[in-house]
Hints:
It contains four helices and no strands. It is mostly helical and about 60 residues long.
Amino acid sequence: MQTIAGVWDVDLKPIKINKENVKRDAQKYRMGSVRLALGRITTKEEFEDYKKCILKKPLP
Length: 60
């Protein structure tokens, strides 16, 4: 049997977001996050690409 302290120490794998599923199931989220309901989410890969693009731009 696992104790409560043992549950907190479990490493969880990163969650892979499927944007198409979120958009299809958007009605389920209408009482929660507006971003989820509209399908306006960013995957980790998309965020890293965007961050690289922004960091390449020179400061004015």
